[in-house]
Amino acid sequence: TLLEICFDADVPLKERTPSEKERFYEKRHRLPEPSCKELATLISQCLNYTPGERPSFRTILRDLTQLQPHNLVDVTSVNPDCPVSDPTVFQKRYLKKIRELGEGHFGKVSLYCYDPTNDGTGEMVAVKSLKSGCSQQLLTSWKREIEILKTLYHENIVKYKGCCSEQ
């Protein structure tokens, strides 16, 4: 609940499939943290992978009550000192369209600026949008292309950043 509040009701990993979520937690990745140190510490304790080390409800209530309102004034969504552990998590709301780049077999490719901090320092990314109403064969081919791109690392090959299944 605290993460949802800090991230404007955006549920972490909501775009992920159950198997992707399972891999995320099996590898014990960490979810993004708010910039407020006290709040980040409390959330981190609540999300401890060892159940016995998680705080009780009374402890959580006490710690939330002790948070001073002036400490929460400058809370930003993500703590820059604690990078998101899964770099393939991209949120559509941070994409700002620049222009169309072209159209291919699977759909359109557009140039976007991915700027989660909304300060103009975002990264330029190409976004491939799958054609709506595509066949199962086309969808399977597209997924195969994604799997291939994930494994390729060369300066002359587009780097795979992530996948979004939203419309």
TrEMBL record:
The keyword Kinase applies. Residues 95-167 form the Protein kinase domain. Keywords: ATP-binding, Kinase, Nucleotide-binding, Transferase. Pfam families: PK_Tyr_Ser-Thr. ATP binds at K128. GO terms for molecular function: ATP binding; growth hormone receptor binding; non-membrane spanning protein tyrosine kinase activity. One of its GO terms (cellular component) is cytosol. InterPro entries: JAK, Kinase-like_dom_sf, Prot_kinase_dom, Protein_kinase_ATP_BS, Ser-Thr/Tyr_kinase_cat_dom. Gene3D superfamilies: Phosphorylase Kinase, domain 1, Transferase(Phosphotransferase) domain 1. It comes from the Eukaryota. GO terms for biological process: cell differentiation; cytokine-mediated signaling pathway; growth hormone receptor signaling pathway via JAK-STAT; intracellular signal transduction. This is Non-receptor tyrosine-protein kinase TYK2. It comes from Charadrius vociferus (Killdeer).
